[in-house]
Amino acid sequence: MDVVGSAAQTLASSDPASHEAVGASAADVEAAWNDTKLAQVLYHDWEAGTYDEKWSISFDQRCIDYARDRFVAVAGMPEAPYGSSLEIGAGTGFFTLNLMQAGIVVSGTVTDISPGMVAAAKRNAEGLGLHVDGEAVDAEDLPFEDDSFDLVIGHAVIHHLPDVEQAFREMVRVVRPGGRIVICGEPTRYGDVVARRLSRATWWAATTATRLPFLRDWARPQEELDESSRAAALEAVVDLHTFDPAELRALVRRAGGRDVRTVTEELTAAWWGWPVRTLEAAIREERLTRAWRVMAFRSWILLSRLDERVKPVVPDALYYNVSVTATV
Questions:
Q1: Would you call 195 helix, strand, or coil by DSSP?
Q2: What does pTM read for this prediction?
Q3: What is the fold, at CATH topology level, of the domain defined by 59-188+242-267+310-327?
Q4: Which Gene3D superfamilies did the record assign (predicted)?
Q5: What are the boundaries of each domain within the chain?
């Protein structure tokens, strides 16, 4: 049995009602330390039910614009929509569904190693009145024939893959001649170090402050904080790589990509965004007012614009996100 089937069976035996309802128990975490692909399924199946809320994912104009802008920043605006698209590591469908709504993609296939994520993506598509095909697959061994798609996409996915170069070889294989690969939102080495340090400091400050008597009703219940701590433990297993832009370009060329290009984004925006996400994970949902969310998002937008303006004088490697594109 392959890793996707094996992990799904493990989850089903823990809770026959739903893969997505399964928490990451101490036993799950212990087993996953020695099997990164099992860890990917356990972690992402567990995350599937709350992933959109955690990362502020939506399918309205805000995220349609964000997905389109990330795509266009690295690959340019296509003269005509891509007829068929395959997404690896699709999660709950953020990239595919928003690119379909933006008119960049006509027909989408979503894949993920997590059955729970694929199910969530298909539900999101149905809610939008869109149709996507979807199945749980390993990105390093895609079950599609050569030259099957006009476009292969991914968002925040290749840092989870044990063999990134093999995954790109598979992407090259399934793209038709003249097609394109677009992978966005991957962490750089420097950016990831800064983000994790800021997140740890924010988590400590928030959880310490909310233990004070006059702030205790701001804290999330202890069981939710414990779940977040277990998630953080599994993140150490599922987040496998960070990238140097030049080295990523070289890797994609070795895998067979042509006209390879990278673009980096988010400097001060990441310094703001990661503490905000961490704080929101530590505070009760009802305390997070609409005014707070609007302020946080607008601040991120303003800082992102600042980051674009200083790019001529700031090395690419210092930015948090790197995206890469190649033709076939």
A1: helix
A2: 0.88
A3: Rossmann fold (3.40.50)
A4: Vaccinia Virus protein VP39 (3.40.50.150)
A5: 1-47, 59-188+242-267+310-327
